[in-house]
Amino acid sequence: MRLSLPTPGSEPISAWRPPQYPVPLALGEFDHFYFARPIAADVSNWPLADYRYGGTLLDPNITHTGVDIPSQAGTPVLAAGPGVVIWAGWGLFTASPENIRAPYGMAVAIRHDFGYHGQPLFTIYAHMRVVDVALGQWVDTGTPLGEVGDTGYTTGPHLHFEMRIGQNSYYFTRNPELWLAPPQGWGVLAGRVLESNREPAHTLPVYIRSLTTNREWTVKTYGAEAVNPDDYYQENMVISDLPAGRYQVMITYKGKTDKIEVNVQPGRVAYFVYRGTFGFTSTDLPPAATLAPTSTLAPMPTLTPTPVAQP
Question: What is the tally of structural domains in the chain?
Fold first, then answer.
């Protein structure tokens, strides 16, 4: 059966935000926008600005391993890509279906029918109030999985979405904003923000301003625990859904403020490197040699899905 990929739709209700690109999308050699949004384009489907991947907003000792998409209770949750349901219901975090006190609440996990660098990919959908799929069920991109809720450890209705690579484990996540296709004509900004000694700078604010509209964003670099950078970008800060154009990036480090301009292109990842007292050192994409020697370029997801064995 041929996979029906998402196609551009009409303008969403929030008219300033265009529909997303069809997936899979990879305009650059190392891009991997393989997944569609798990919330439809006619409602809010972008990550909560203050609690992105790597955030420590709710507890300085707990690092956020996904993105939170604010949505009303009952909003349909959609499969981000084709694959097999390997978890459906309570207890995902503890692998105990009877554990109704587990932090993810009612959740769904999908093992996808395509991988990356020879490793399997998984997506997680948590805090649901209704789950409409069953263990072992095949789903396509856009298949309804259930409804947004507030089960588990949560302060209100939203979808917690994770992307995992290699193993279906809390410790094998990657930043979903580098895997979810952006809106058409928009792009993504990733940064590698380091201390002067080249160690990652944790929870350091990065200020971003559009030079076209003067709109501003603040993104903090990842916390120290339980999160992982992309194999290629080695980032510790990402912000997606930026309209194409010129942006000013500003970082204050030990009382010194540095600024640089970057160009965000449609459907692409813009990039910068910052190193403490040395300031911004590059806006070029990393060389291919930054990949581990055993890594190979990932093929794009197959358009003819074949079932995969349940782990």
Answer: 1
Indicate whether 193 belongs to any domain: yes
* 267, burial (CB in 10 Å: exposed 0-12, middle 13-18, buried 19+): buried
Q: Taking the C-alpha atoms of 264, 164, 21 and 295 in order, what is their torsion angle to the nearest 10 degrees?
A: 70
Residue 167 lies inside a defined structural domain of this protein: no
The torsion angles phi and psi of 115, rounded to 5 degrees, stand at -130, -170
Residue 132 domain flag: no
Q: Is the whole-model pTM more than 0.85?
A: yes
The C-alpha atoms of residue 275 and residue 221 are separated, in whole angstroms, by 13
Spatial neighbors of 50 by CB under 8 A, at least 6 apart, are 57
State how far the Cα of 146 lies from the Cα of 107, in Å rounded to an integer.
9
The predicted-structure confidence for 157-206, as pLDDT tens digits, reads as follows 999 999 999 999 989 999 999 999 999 999 999 999 999 999 999 999 99
CATH of the domain at 197: 2.60.40.10
User: Does some domain include residue 234?
Assistant: yes
